[in-house]
Write a structure and sequence with these properties.
The protein is of the alpha+beta class and about 270 residues long. It is built from five helices and 13 strands.
Length: about 270
């Protein structure tokens, strides 16, 4: 039976890939219950030495919840939603924030993605590689010092509310040890016609991603759609990863905000 996406206000759900077996300090805690209930801590990963001088790694398993980093003074909780050749795919279990993807502008149009389509001057760019969102998610910079890859800060009057040009980077309140546990990964990022019509794509893909609101087939032509590879630690779920989460967890609620409003896959 086909299932449609449930609509909900989930502005920003982010994911990182963690090393499958790593040595942590007290930076990470593994839980067996959802953050929507009181945590039952089942393990605390420590860099403790055994009698033979070796250290015991922490294995992250599918379904595990972990605490890693802070945002706005609160622990960020992640859930392992898939494990593949790159390691555990960790999905933020709560809505992190409500922020625009990219600022509207035609500034820097001759060298950045905003200049490839006139509508981007009014709506911003959907090109992930130089987007404000990618810049912010992977930044450790202090408030007001994030380097915006497109050269256009998401400031007031350039975004539809929730300007974040003066915010610290998302990773600012993560320790160096916590950031070191996150894998830097290269993966496929789909591009649209303003890019591929100008030859900005990789591989032999030759199609747009088909519009399909049924979750079981939403990624049906993902492997043949125009793309470029990008490399980062923190990113947004692509449709193939969404499909994988649905296959693994069906009605898993993929995010709750502080008021308890949730969206789900399935």
């Amino acid at each position: 039976m086909k299932k449609r996406f449930k609509t909900a206000n989930i502005p920003l759900i982010i994911v990182v890939l963690l090393v499958l077996a790593v040595f942590f300090g007290e930076a990470i805690r593994i839980h067996i219950t959802s953050p929507n209930a009181k945590y039952e801590t089942v393990a605390t990963a420590r860099s403790s030495s055994a009698t033979n001088g070796t250290r015991t790694p922490t294995q992250v398993k599918s379904g595990d919840y972990i605490s890693l980093g802070k945002y706005n003074g609160k622990d960020v909780v992640w859930r392992c939603v898939s494990i593949d050749e790159k390691g555990p795919l960790m999905l933020a279990d709560n809505v992190i924030d409500t922020l625009p993807y990219d600022a509207k502008t035609s500034d820097n149009g001759s060298t950045k993605s905003h200049g490839r389509n006139l509508k981007r001057a009014d709506y911003g760019s959907n090109y992930w590689k130089d987007s404000n969102m990618r810049s912010w998610l992977n930044s450790t910079a202090d408030a007001g010092k994030v380097k915006w890859l497109c050269g256009n800060p998401p400031k007031a009057d350039y975004v539809d509310g929730n300007a974040y040009d003066e915010k610290a980077g998302f990773l600012n309140d993560f320790s160096k040890a916590e950031i070191a546990t996150m894998k830097t990964v290269t993966q496929r990022t789909l591009v649209s016609h303003p890019e591929y019509t100008k030859g900005i794509y990789e591989g032999d893909a030759r199609s747009d991603l088909e519009y399909n609101h049924y979750i079981d087939s939403v990624a049906s032509n993902f492997s043949s759609a125009y793309y470029k590879n990008t490399t980062e630690k923190v990113f947004l779920l692509d449709v193939k990863q969404v499909n994988t989460v649905w296959k693994n967890f069906d009605d898993y609620y993929i995010g709750r905000n502080e008021q308890g409003v949730a969206g789900r896959i399935g």
